[in-house]
Fold:
Amino acid sequence: MTALRDAAMTSKAWPFEEARAVLKRYGGKDPAKGHVLFETGYGPSGLPHIGTFGEVARTTMIRRAFEIISDIPTRLICFSDDVDGMRKVPENVPQQEMLRAHMQLPLTSVPDPYGEYESFGHHNNAMLRRFLDTFGFEYEFISATEFYKSGQFDATLRLCAERYDQIMAIMLASLREERQQTYSCFLPIHPETGRVMYVPMKEVNARDGTITFDDETGREWTLPVTGGHVKLQWKPDFGARWAALDVDFEMYGKDHSTNTPIYDGICNALGGRAPNHMTYELFLDDQGQKISKSKGNGLTIDEWLTYAATESLSYFMYQKPKTAKRMHFDVIPRAVDEYHQQLRAFPDQPLDQQVNNPVWHIHNGKPPASRMVVSFGMLLNLASVSGAKDAGALWKFLKRYAPDASPETHPDLDAAAGYAVRYFADKIAPTRVFRVPDAREQAAMEDLVTRLRAWDGPTDDEALQSMVFAVGKEHGFEPLRDWFKALYEVLLGASDGPRFGGFIALYGAAETVELMERALKGELVSGATQGA
Structure:
C-alpha cells in the first residue's frame, strides 16, 4: 500500500470516511457488475440551483477518495426525474400562463418557456449539464424519459407489478388514512391527454404486467407498466432505481432523511441491496428559508461565478456538509479567501494533513499554487476607495505592493481583481453608509494623518498596523476594535474592513492621507448622499 493510501485509510476528512464505508460494503471482494456506482438525482421542475451542483461536487469528492483507497473502477450517474408531472409553475421563469396550461404533463412534454429546447425538461437538463461541465465533472447523464421509454427500466417495472402488495405495504404505512384510500405506486400517463394521473388502481395484473384504472371522466383504461406508459411515484421510483441500476452510493438532503427506510425497503423488496447514503444539511437563503427551484431564491451557480472562481464554490461545498449553510452573496468573499489560505498551507503540510485539506479534495490531490498575494477582501476595499471600473485600474496599486506580480504571472490575482470590482459595484456600493467621526475619532484620525505624512518607516503591513494600533491606544479606544470600526465606517462606509496596516501598504500612504482628509471634511458622506 502506498503512503497516500495509508494516509487516506486513516484520514478524518469526510470524503475518505464515506469512501471507506463504500469499500467496506464489498468486504474485500469486487462487485459482480465490475464497478462501484455512485448516483446523484435531480428533479428538473425548475432551473437547477446551487444545491444540485453541491450534490454532484460532494459525490465526486467521495468518488475520487474511493479511487485512492481501492482499485475497483467507478462510475457516476446523474439521473434526471424528468417524467415527473409539473405540479407547480416555477416563479422565476417566463410564460407563466402557458406553463399553467400544461400542468401535470411530464416535464419533457411541457413546452420550453424559453423557446430553446423541445421541452421545459430538456431545457433544465441542458442547464444542469452545462453547469456540471463548467466544473469538469466526469459523469454519465440519464434522463428518466429515456430510461422508461427505452425499456431499460422494464424488468424492474414488471417486478413492481409482481410485488405490488409489498411495495404498497411499505408506502401505506407512511401515509395518512385519507391518502391511503387513493394511493398507488404506479402513475399512469393518460394515452390521450399525456398527463400524469394520480388515480387509484382497479387492478394490477402481475402476469400480464398491466394496470387498470378509471380516468377523471370515468373511462376505464388498461396500460402496460412497461415502455413509458406509466411512471412510479417519486418515493418508490427512488428505491426502484437503486435496485434497477445496482447503485452503491447516493447522498441527498436532510428533507429526504425520513424517507430513507422507505427507499431502502422498496429497493430490498425488488431484490436489490440498498446503497450507502449520506444526508447533508440544507442550503438556506438570506432569510433562512430553504432554497427552492420553484421559488428561485438563494444563489444560482451563474451568480456565484459572476463574482468568484469555480474553486471557491467547490470549497464552500466541501465545508461541513452536515451543517446548514446560508447561501447568499455575502458568503463569497470569505469562501475565496479561505480557499486560498488552504492552498498556501498545502505545500508545507505532511501527507496526513494534506489529505485532510479541502483543496486536496477540490483538486483531486493536485492543488495548484496560490498566487493571491492580496486577499479578496482587500481587493474589495481597494475597489471601494479607488473607484476602479476594471481589474486594470487595480493593478496600479497591486504592482506597487507586489512589484514582481503581473496579470500574466498571477492569473488568479488578476481574475480576482476583476471579480472584486464587479462584486463591489453590484453588492457593496449600493449598501454603503458613510458617517462623520465624533470628536475623539476626529482627533485620532487627524493624528493618524499627521503620522502618515511624516512616515519614513517600512511600508510593510506589520509596521503600518503597529502605528495605527498605537494611535488608537493613545486616544483611549477601549476596546481597540472600536477604533478600527470607526475607520471602516468613516472611510469605507461599512462596519467591517481589512487589516488597516495592510490596506495602507496596498493603497499607499499618500492616497490614504488624501482619503482621510476627504472624510474629515465630510466629503465622503456628502458624496454618498449625492449618489443616492
